[in-house]
Every structure is written in structure tokens, then in C-alpha cells.
Write a sequence for this structure.
């Protein structure tokens, strides 16, 4: 299960034999002699991917990151608990799905066997009504995956199946990019599901839980993103919906090794140094100001979140053209989300899953029992005979009182796992953030593509339009490699082979049905 190395082969990256290869452009293997210089603004997944590929090809790279460490929205930082233990706090749980081929290819640079990832046995979903779903026994290969889910799920009864609108569901059967956005970007995820007449409980469990992984209210989320996600994780891929998680905190498992890898390839990593302004030069280069210092570069990858990208472009009036700049100015950021991490003085019941998606429990969207898989949390739990639990609340209303949301999330934990009611909270940390991209109804055309109007500037990130069936962390990694590829192609140097889930529906019969429904 190896992804191609830089310039590598075309062996499949996973179990899905229909995974689609995106061939690398040709050219010389790498630079020799005096190579061009490139700046990468942003040290998250997208920026690290871009910097990695450019440096492997011999480009002289400087990576700028405004935070003290790499990782972006998967970064972590040390904090000392009241008992004197130094632990790692982060922005919360992330699922490393097995169809994240290009992200896994990035991680394989420092961990060829992906030994730092451990598999979770299930992805259970609980609704406050008492209904529960699970993906552990659902077949992985479509369309058996969808049929198996319906057969095994308590949310689908015969009466529910009879009243569904199969014609409205046809777009799910043959998802194509970017056509899916042309067809469905003007519709909300909620309205799309209402058209299909999904059972309300299935709506909450099977779709709302997924849509909220975009940190958005499904009434505001573009249906195109929801349908694309359904294709990536369920009906278009045979990798399944189970996933892996790092067995140590993000810095130790992922970013510290990649930081060393980048430095080993000559990358200057400048953390705590945000890019503030970009000025194109008459000779085709760029003057880039970071803090109070300005340096000249031959190329730039803007691998920033929506807010950071908007700020840099607004401060750089000569960058791009008027239309590009206006579209970036209209980018939106998703509502705030909460990550609460609790160190408890007693264990959670042994039969509790390591990860649980929830719906109908107030602001609480999922629960993670970190000591089930993360080494640092497990060591603390063993030593204290306690447990480490993480709570997430997504798309929190802008006028919500944060202390109240934190307390209500804890109250819902007590409701879901009653044994935690008697546990004392030894310590707690709460992280509030509002920097994830928003994919609103009708917003697709405002999102930047990888290539900008300036051939020396490319864009990467999980909000970028790639023209490929990727999302979330995988879109970040893929766009980072694509951004580097675009610059390498300009310089006549070979790019990186990439992979995605199949780019169309898997069944010719279902694709035909979908086409008939669109007529």
C-alpha cells in the first residue's frame, strides 16, 4: 500500500483498484546548480506538502508560519496540568480516512509504514432519541456499502424507504467534479436531503454528522459539498468509512518528523513569522514581507486559511487581478467551534468507543476517549487511573455564551456516558477557533483555484478548487502538491503523481440512471 514517491510509480495507493491516478507532468528529475527560490506562506498540511515537493526537486524553499509550530489546524502546544504533568493540547480529533491517498503519501516521507497511525474499529453514531448507527459491519465496496448501511441501520424502515424520492437522490450515484458544483452549489444540504425525503433520524445520523464536519450548519452548507463527501467516503470509494488516528499527539507523531525532513532538504522553516504583503516585481519575481523583513523570491505558494489569504491579498494591491482579488475578499469563514479536553480522575467505561459521533445532544457533536489510542493520554490515564476525554461542538452560534456552551457540552457527556457524572475534572482546557473555510450555498465560484493570475503565485488549502474528488485534509494535501506541480511545470521539472477516489460513479447502470435523472 505505497503511494508513489516524488516522481514515482503508478501503483495503487490502497485497496480500491479503481482509484484514479493523476499523472505527473514530465521534465527533468530535479534542479542542479542554481535553483529558483520559493516562499510558502502557511505551515499547515497544504503548505508542508508544497514545501516538501518543491524541496525534493531542489528548489530553495522558505516556509513561513505565523504560529510557533507547524501543523495548522492540526497543530498542538504544550500545557502544564494542575498535577504538574506537561501534556499536549490541540485543536481536536481528526480522522485520517484510508482514501486520503495524497496526505498519506506525504506522511510516508517520514513514516513509510504509517506506523504512527492506528485503526479505530468503528465509527458509531448516536442520536438522542436512542437510535444508533455503526459502520463496522457495513461492506466497504459500493453499491453494497449503501445497501448494507440501509439494511443494518435502524433509521431506515420499510415505510421510510417507500416514501423516499429516488429521482431526487440520483445525483448521489454519479458524482463528477466540477459538474457536481454546477448542478448543486445553489442548493443547501438541508434542502437537498429534504427533496430526497430521507427519514429524519437518518438525516441526522448519516448526513448531518458528516455535514457538521465542515463546521457548518447544514442549512447553509452547499449541497455540492455534501454530495461530493458522500461520493468520497461512501458510494464512490471502496476504502470504507473507518479511519485511522495518530497514536501520539500531532506534533510528536506528524509535524516534528516532517519539520526535520524539510530541514534535511534545505528548507528554511520560519515559525512565528506571518507573511504580511506580496509585491510583484517587474522581472517576474516577488518581494515578500514577513514581519518587518522583505525578501525576493521567484515564486510563492499561498497556503493560508480563508481569513489569512484574504488579509494577505488585501494588503497586496498589485497581486493578481481585480476579479481574483474580489472573489478572495468574498470568502467566508465557518462559525466558531469548541474543543474541550477533560482530564478525569476515573476511567470511562471499558465498552465505550474511542470516537463517537452524536446528534441531538445540544451543542455536542462528538466525543473522543483519547486514552483509547493516544499514547500520551494513555500514559496519564494509567498513572492516575483516570481518563482523558475530548468534546467537540461545531458551528456554535455567534451570540452564544462560551462558558455556557462548555458547561452544556459537559452536561451532555454526562447524559451519554453516565459514569462520568461522578468523575472529578482534574484539569480542563478549552480551545475556541473560527478559522475553518465556509462552503456556503452559491460560493463555489468565489473559491480560488490552484493557479492564480500571476504564474509565479499558486494557492493551496482545503478551500481551494482542485477539480478533483477530494475534501478536508486530503484537499489540503492534494492542493499543496498541485500548487508545487504548477510551479515545477513552469520550470520544466517533473511533478508528483497523485491519486484520488474514482472520479465518477462506480456503476455504469447507476451512472446511466443519474444521467436520465438529469435530463
Amino acid at each position: 500500500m505505497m503511494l508513489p514517491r516524488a516522481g514515482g510509480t503508478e501503483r495503487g495507493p490502497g485497496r480500491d483498484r479503481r482509484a484514479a491516478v493523476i499523472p505527473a507532468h514530465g521534465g527533468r528529475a530535479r534542479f542542479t546548480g542554481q535553483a529558483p527560490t520559493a516562499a510558502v506562506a502557511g505551515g499547515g498540511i497544504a503548505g508542508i506538502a508544497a514545501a516538501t515537493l518543491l524541496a525534493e526537486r531542489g528548489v530553495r524553499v522558505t516556509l513561513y508560519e505565523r504560529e510557533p509550530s507547524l501543523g495548522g489546524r492540526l497543530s498542538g502546544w504544550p500545557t502544564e496540568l494542575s498535577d504538574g504533568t506537561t501534556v499536549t493540547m490541540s485543536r481536536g480529533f481528526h480522522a485520517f480516512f484510508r482514501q486520503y491517498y495524497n496526505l498519506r503519501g506525504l506522511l510516508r516521507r517520514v513514516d513509510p509504514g504509517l506506523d504512527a497511525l492506528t485503526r479505530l474499529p468503528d465509527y458509531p453514531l448516536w442520536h438522542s432519541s436512542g437510535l444508533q448507527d455503526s459502520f463496522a459491519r457495513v461492506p466497504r465496496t459500493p453499491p453494497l456499502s449503501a445497501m448494507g448501511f440501509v439494511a443494518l441501520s435502524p433509521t431506515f424502515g420499510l415505510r421510510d424507504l417507500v416514501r423516499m424520492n429516488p429521482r431526487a437522490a440520483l445525483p448521489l450515484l454519479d458524482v463528477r467534479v466540477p459538474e457536481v458544483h454546477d448542478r448543486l452549489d445553489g442548493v443547501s444540504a438541508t434542502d437537498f436531503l429534504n427533496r430526497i425525503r430521507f427519514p429524519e433520524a437518518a438525516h441526522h445520523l448519516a448526513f448531518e454528522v458528516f455535514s457538521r464536519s465542515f463546521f457548518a450548519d447544514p442549512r447553509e452548507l452547499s449541497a455540492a459539498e455534501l454530495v461530493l463527501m458522500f461520493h468520497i467516503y461512501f458510494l464512490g470509494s471502496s476504502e470504507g468509512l473507518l479511519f485511522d488516528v495518530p497514536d501520539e499527539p500531532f506534533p510528536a507523531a506528524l509535524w516534528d518528523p516532517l519539520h526535520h525532513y524539510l530541514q534535511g532538504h534545505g528548507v528554511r522553516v520560519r515559525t512565528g513569522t506571518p507573511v504580511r504583503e506580496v509585491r510583484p516585481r517587474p522581472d517576474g519575481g516577488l518581494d515578500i514581507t514577513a514581519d518587518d523583513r522583505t525578501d525576493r523570491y521567484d515564486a510563492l505558494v499561498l497556503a493560508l486559511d480563508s481569513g489569512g489569504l484574504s488579509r494577505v491579498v488585501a494588503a497586496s494591491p498589485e497581486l493578481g487581478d481585480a476579479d481574483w482579488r474580489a472573489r478572495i475578499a468574498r470568502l467566508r469563514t465557518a462559525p466558531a467551534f469548541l474543543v474541550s479536553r477533560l482530564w478525569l480522575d476515573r476511567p470511562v467505561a471499558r465498552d465505550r468507543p474511542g470516537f463517537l459521533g452524536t446528534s441531538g445532544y445540544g451543542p455536542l457533536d462528538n466525543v473522543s476517549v483519547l486514552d483509547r489510542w493516544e499514547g500520551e493520554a494513555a500514559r496519564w490515564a494509567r498513572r492516575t487511573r483516570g481518563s482523558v476525554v475530548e468534546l467537540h461542538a461545531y458551528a456554535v452560534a455567534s451570540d452564544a455564551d462560551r462558558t455556557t456552551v462548555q458547561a452544556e457540552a459537559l452536561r451532555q457527556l454526562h447524559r451519554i456516558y453516565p459514569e462520568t457524572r461522578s468523575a472529578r475534572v482534574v484539569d480542563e482546557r478549552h480551545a475556541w477557533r473560527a478559522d475553518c473555510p465556509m462552503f456556503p450555498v452559491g460560493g463555489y465560484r468565489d473559491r480560488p483555484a490552484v493557479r492564480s493570475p500571476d504564474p509565479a503565485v499558486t494557492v493551496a488549502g482545503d478551500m481551494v478548487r482542485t477539480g478533483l474528488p477530494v475534501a478536508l485534509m486530503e484537499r489540503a494535501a492534494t492542493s499543496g502538491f498541485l500548487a508545487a506541480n504548477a510551479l515545477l511545470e513552469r520550470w520544466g521539472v517533473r511533478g508528483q503523481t497523485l491519486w484520488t477516489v474514482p472520479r465518477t460513479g462506480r456503476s455504469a447502470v447507476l451512472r446511466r440512471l443519474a444521467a436520465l435523472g438529469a435530463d
Remarks:
- The chain has a mean pLDDT of 90.
- The radius of gyration is 23 Å.
- Residues 472-490 form the longest helix (19 residues).
- The chain has 16 helices and 22 strands.
